[in-house]
Specification:
- The chain is of the alpha+beta class and about 425 residues long.
- The chain has 8 helices and 21 strands.
- Strands 6, 7, 8, 9, 10, 18 and 21 form a 7-stranded mixed beta sheet that branches. Strands 11-12-17-14-15-16-13 form a 7-stranded antiparallel beta sheet, with no helix packed on it.
Length: about 425
């Protein structure tokens, strides 16, 4: 890929790039992003509260207000209410916005070869829109699952992550336990359903494709679906499209495209070994054989931690120093044969996981606040008389979780499961 001369003044490209380019990118990213489907303004009851203040600059803050429910006691009889009213408790959160940019570049020959008759600018908008959708989803999940403290359950009744036993899959009773914990914690449901004289909360449950596979292949789950839904082609047992199960809206998130060399999600981290690993090696290298500059192939993994173990083939490894350096040749330092496993050789492209860990996120309203000071805006640059062209987006935004008074993520809980890949690819 050509290196753009950033000191070269960009042309206006008037007439080349449609004025609708920015809107097209926004539409593509909104359509593909799960988090965008869950976003709304402060009055919407959405899972992600979104606020725009285009007067703000990078480093400044946008303020959100969350009103707590009333919990006080009433007065009775002739007792005066005046002076005994319950205070309205409004919690204010400030989200700092940051300036970001990302782009792609090509040259005249590559444009002819790679875009199949489409204008390269149109293809660039599509590619950046797809990337931006995944970025927004990643930022939301990373904030809730890793950056802040979230109430966590462990499948199989395990007391901690490193005690989750093989076979502790996401099963119907674990799903019920997860939503019950959300309700017990007082998480605001996405909506409520009235049944006779009772009101039942409805939460969203987001899971990886592997946890979804384990859930829908459970015999009890399949029988519930067969009995509960109408017969015909639209029955979930035939269509594989499941919308709701026992008061939970079921959502699944697929892994990053394997063709990119980036694998997994924050719900279920994965990597591929870049080079073969001997039984005595103490550093590992991950990613494709030819790495891209600016890509963190271990982004879904914690940097280290006493409860974090890698699993490659059947060997466990503890690790430290998971690096975020793009194109690094030594991603982490590992201690081999952890948890009673045996050190072994592993071939290049062998699959690695966080010891088959899966995370299932249950959430209701107001889990996070997303602040925008600038929606994605197109930037462009060219050099060598227009032979090389670059397209980029810039945006200014920030994201923080809504938190309870105990400094844990509000309106969300997570279940950690045993989540092995069902296949060898």
């Amino acid at each position: 890929m050509a290196t753009l001369n950033v000191s070269t003044t960009a042309s206006e490209w008037t007439g080349i790039v449609p004025t609708l380019w920015d809107e097209t990118l926004w539409e593509v990213s909104t359509r593909l992003s799960i988090s965008d489907q869950l976003a709304g303004d402060e009055r919407s009851g959405a899972a992600i509260i979104e606020k725009f203040d285009l007067t703000k600059r990078p480093g400044q803050t946008i303020t959100f207000t969350v009103i707590d429910p009333l919990i006080g006691e009433p007065v009775s009889g002739r007792t005066a209410l005046e002076g005994s009213e319950e205070d309205t408790n409004a919690t204010t959160f400030s989200v700092t916005v940051t300036h970001y940019r990302h782009g792609t570049a090509t040259d005249e020959l590559s444009q002819i070869i790679s875009t199949f008759g489409r204008k390269w600018e149109s293809k660039a908008a599509e590619l950046l829109g797809d990337w931006f959708a995944r970025r927004k989803d990643d930022d939301w999940m990373d904030q809730l699952l890793n950056q802040d403290t979230i109430q966590t359950l462990y499948a199989g009744g395990a007391p901690a992550r490193n005690s989750i036993a093989p076979g502790s899959y996401l099963l119907p009773h674990e799903l019920r336990r997860l939503t019950q914990q959300a309700e017990r914690r007082g998480a605001k449901p996405i909506k409520t359903i009235r049944g006779l004289k009772s009101i039942f909360p409805v939460y969203c449950v987001l899971m990886s494709e592997v946890d979804y596979y384990n859930l829908v292949n459970d015999a009890n789950f399949r029988q519930d679906v067969r009995l509960a839904e109408l017969r015909g082609a639209e029955n979930s047992a035939l269509s594989a499209r499941l919308n709701m199960y026992q008061g939970s809206v079921i959502m699944r998130l697929s892994s990053a495209p394997a063709s990119t060399g980036l694998h997994g999600t924050f719900l279920r981290p994965e990597f591929r070994l870049r080079t073969a690993l001997t039984a005595a090696a103490t550093t590992i290298d991950i990613g494709p054989s030819t790495q891209k500059t600016g890509v963190d192939y271990g982004k879904y993994f914690p940097a280290s931690g006493s409860n974090n173990f890698l699993l490659v083939d059947s060997e466990n490894m503890s690790y430290t120093g998971g690096a975020s350096d793009p194109g690094n040749t030594g991603w982490a330092t590992v201690t081999r044969a952890a948890n009673g496993s045996a050190a072994a050789t592993h071939s290049a492209a062998a699959l690695g996981t966080l010891n088959n860990l899966g995370k299932v996120l249950c959430f209701g309203q107001a889990t996070a606040m997303r602040a925008w000071a600038l929606k994605p805006r197109r930037k462009h640059q060219e050099r060598d008389y227009g032979f090389e062209r670059g397209m980029a987006i810039q945006w200014i935004y920030g994201l923080e979780s809504v938190q309870w008074s105990d400094s844990t993520v509000a309106n969300a809980v997570v279940l950690e499961t045993y989540s092995p890949n069902a296949n060898t690819v």
